[in-house]
Design brief:
824 residues, alpha+beta, nine-stranded mixed sheet, seven-stranded mixed sheet, 30% helix
Amino acid sequence: MSDGERTPDGDASGRIARGAVGPGPGPGFGVEEVRRQWARVVADAADGIQVVIHAPHGVRAVLGPPTPDVLAAQGELPAFTMTAARQGLGNLVRAAAAGTPQLVLRYRRVYAQITHTATTTSGGGTAVPATRAMPGPDAPDVAPPPPAAPITPAASSGAGRRVAGFATALGEATTARRRAISFGPTALDEALGGGALPGRLVLVVGAPGAGAGLLAAGTVLSATLAPADDPDKSNAVLSCTPGRPRADIAARLTAAAAGVDHRRLRADTLTETERHAADAASARLAAGGLLLDDGADLTLDLLRETAADIAGLRLVAVDPLNHLLPGAAGVAGPDIRHGVAALRRLAADLDVPVVAVWETGVGEPPEIVAALGDADTVVHLTREGEQAFAIVAERDLGPVAQAALHADLAHVRFTDPAPASTAVAETGPAEVPSADSTEPLAPAPRERTEGRQDGLAAGAPATAPRPSTTPARAGARPTSAAPKAPAASKARRVVMDADEDPLPGAIAGAVAEELAAAEGDITAASEALARRAIPDVMELLRLSRAGSRYEHTWYPPLPELLRKRSKEESDAVWEARPKWRNRHLPPGDHEVTALDMNAAYLSALKAHLPIGPLEHRAGPDLDDFDGPRGRKRRRAGIYLVEPPTWEHDDLPNPLGDRDEPGPLWITDPTLRLLLRCASPAYGTLCEEPQILESWTAVATENLLERLRTALRDARDAAIAEGDDVTLDYVKQMYAKLVSTMGGSNYNREINRPDWMHIIRSQAFSNLWVKAFKAHRGGLAVVRVMGTDELHLTGGDWRTVFAEGRGVGDVKIKDTYILQTKDKS
């Protein structure tokens, strides 16, 4: 085919085919045609192929690789993410045709450009209105023109380079884990560093019948049932099961989500309760944007085009990859390597996790095994009965982790292994196991050490024991996670079997250890636990962060406003601590109930905490920034605001008892509370605060979530069993964690004053919200104090709050009669 020869507008399938670039203007492609194949067209443009795009009324522009002059001026040109550019492609074409180049970004660097046809250069710089020709169905692909000579960027502009500071790169890596998709079992997620990470291909390899498809289906379930990243936009999950009926896949996912027997679900023999659970699960799956493709004719190219056209895509799953490759029965190593590379590129281009299954055959040649290793992560799965084992291997690193799994075949899913039973034996001569016994030895009682603050157990390993795969003995009865205090006359020795989650066992083990050391003296054990609360909670924090990508002991540099101005003076951050009294109650006698908010600081651990270094920015609208695929990512930190006027005598000011006028530095929870007060949902109580400047970073609400959950569960169990020792121990841990994380001589392991201020402010914000809830419920708010004290009158407070000792409940602290006089 000559350069000047025109080709049909597409191949037999209607796709834009990759072909030659000629000097003729060519017919070009419409905006909608390019938009349907956006990811592939932009990738080809980045590789050097130029595409003419025409909009209505004869407007035309060229999509091609970035040129040196455009790169040099990129700071002054409009730039768009891949998703944003696809959505506004028509406007970008018109703007480019008018003379303003439009930049397409991928991973925050210039990936391609859209320019006027007269300004497109080829190779050495000659202007040509280049197009991408499309061969017919029988025409061979023609190689694109040779790339231009490498561009040497200027030292000041850094054109053509992707350079970032270490802290920025670390922040980008940690935010990826926040978007990871869980496989279901916690042990496997930890082995994978959080789950299936965006932009990466995870290949699950197993023999037929091993359950590799069920393991991959766990990510489909997690991604579908997870909350939407943006409440205003819907998410989508694409599950491709070529050759496997989608009705079977839907039934499996429903059974796994509802926890009902898969076979009885298919046979329609579920009980009424199980039927309701299955209906609820199927409704959630239907609402989660799950898309099923069971077409036997699916190919890698069709998969890429389908995925690129789905808005809000958060996961692509392929089960199995074998069916997508040519000649699946006798597929060769090069074909597998090509398929793996195509899926890796799909994951990177769409910035979503891609999870694929490969069914191994007997005696596969080494070249196939080597080709599978080209995936970013490979999970090798083996199974015997209900016991399964996964080995995780990273590309270029080999095996890096392993995880024991339980095959819950009745519910067609994998879970963590069931915890082994816990036995309690009387102190005395221990029975020595035989040489081939798998039962663990019981730890001997430790001598009591006064004032110890060296961890969870002196002389014990720093980490909890590894999970045991030994099945629990039949008939064994597990003891409670929070043991009650034994009698003083009989100190007991606790035999703790390994648990898949080390946190509950660590808490219960510490209590049992001190009770045994104190020979049942509850007061002495409580005092010992209070002394070790700080090192113990830091060890729990370390265990809760195992496998995380963000190292919580890495302390980024702090701005001056977070440093104490002197030994006597605090830093410049205002936490909005309330100390308010209603001075406008009607005259008369008022029966007041003082309520105590349970575990205020424990609840406040669920707050948006910044990770990475705080970045300074000036001006308003600094809360969010554009992330991959145009989504908004949450930032949090410290904000300098001009506070709004508060004119409500019957409600406390969200800023607390502050009398000084002028701007002040507040934390993220306080800012969020002010914004809610300014919203119609709260009755527009005030105007929005004016943000003057900020120190913020990408944030996560889940950094302390696992620790918070473990402490909450231990607290609930202790209350249920009347175990005051564990209850006080848990309170000491979370209270001292918050009070010392900002820098303390008692806690040298963490120094995050920004986290301390944010958590405290979150507690104060939670208290204000409860006061507002009571106000809306028809009660009069009398006083609001500290983190947990709310005084109410004017009705039955039980119509607004639940009474109890659980987290989220309230309890009566005091009742009294308040006499007010007529002030007129």
